[in-house]
Amino acid sequence: MAGKVQRKNYRIDMTKLTRAREVLGTKTETETIHRALDLVADEAALAKALRALVVKGHEHIEALDGDR
Fold this sequence. Notes:
With 68 residues, the protein is mainly alpha-helical.
């Protein structure tokens, strides 16, 4: 999902950026930052969906127990 792109200046830990770049296999610092931000947002969405699934599964198990 592409959004508005705006030039920004940040003070950033270069060791962290280099490590992220190596892990992600990205070519540029900008690509690294964009990819890392995407991963954080995707992980948060996945965690939210997983929590909802666990709650729903728990409700289903309680309903089955009530049928006994």
